[in-house]
Give the backbone structure.
Amino acid sequence: MNEIYHCLDISKQSFHQMLSRRMYKQEEEEQIVYLVRQIREDHPRMSARDIYSKVQPSTVGRDQFEHICYNNGLRVKQKKNFRKTTNSLGVTRFANYLKEIEVTDVNQAFVSDITYYEIKDKFYYLTFIMDLYNREIVGYSASDNMRTENTTLPALNMLIKLRGSENLKGSIFHSDGGGQYYSNDFKSITGNLRMINSMAEEVYENAHAERLNGIIKNNYLYPYGPTDLKSLKKSIKKAVWMYNNDKPHSALNGYTPVNYIKRLVKKVNAI
């Protein structure tokens, strides 16, 4: 490798810095594609330029944003055909391990997704992590940008604090294909925890997380009516508490997520 660096007239450090920049750019493009796909579900005919005006990403200009949409089949005139970009830079894609198991206990499988929430023509980004067994929201975040450090990482750290790192070994962490779920920082944490990263290839393969997004937004946030990021964070905290502690779930025989676990613990202790 040193001979290659010499031939290219570039230092080893410069080469790896360049590679890191290219990897980050690829991850960022995947994040934008994922976001535009979500927005188009609510605004099927909204142009890429209008979406850019709403989203206003901090690191991508308008022309580059439109170019990314064009290259990924996200033009308005085309039918939905969200072609995956070629991962020639080594971006990780995970298999869907969730479909291979039956969930029978807590900490066995978590599902997660990032969605957007609009306030006064400004977009905010919500991340939720849910334990698939008892449907409890165990991590969440809200931010005014879609960077990994402000979306998936705070939610993941909340999960670790709530459930304990020692209880997450071997857990499946399932998500859609957003770049925030395979960034180097995110993979480093899940790797150290020895969690199993899993990804949906189709939208329906992350249906539980998608449904959770709708419930939180439609049943709680819209009625609460947050007006800015500060009040949005306060509303999400309240919504999560109500969802976990006060909302009966048909899949849990009418129990709330928290009470469902308490009931199981009582049964085990009674044996």
